[in-house]
Amino acid sequence: KVFQDYGKVVVNDDHSDWIDNLMFSPSKGFMKGYMDMVFCHEGRFFLVDWKSNYLGNSITHYGEPNINEVMERESYILQYHLYILALHQYLRLKAAAYNYEDSFGGVFYIFMRGVDDSKTRGSGIFYDLPDVSLINRLGKALIPGYGE
After folding, report:
1. Residue 59: partners with Cβ closer than 8 Å, 6 or more residues away
2. Would residue 49 show up in a list of annotated catalytic residues for this protein?
3. For 123-143, how does the pLDDT look when each residue is reduced to its tens digit (9 = 90+)?
């Protein structure tokens, strides 16, 4: 509902794929996942998730249209928003000078099989920097007492 209300995140009308991809243990309030890498560059934090998905034999298979399709189909869009929220919450609580607008630089999903800047600039790389309002809406929906 948060994504539907926000309107800037493209989610297939039949987002049952996202729900079908979610597998939870029967415990309440706990979800696990692993951020592959967080780094700081010029005072901004970035998230990186490395992907080894096979999208085809040609570098052209790792262009924006194919990557966007995989990002949606595999629920990576949901995944990185949850990762951003988790990192945002951590930095908000632990780093005194942190604020999202000035201190967060975005998320990269790097499809390793398709990275070749010498042939196609940006090939194999997905980048996004969600608006703080979306991250805050997710926080309010998922974290009791968020932002208080």
Report:
1. 114, 116, 119, 120, 123, 124
2. yes
3. 899 999 999 999 999 999 888
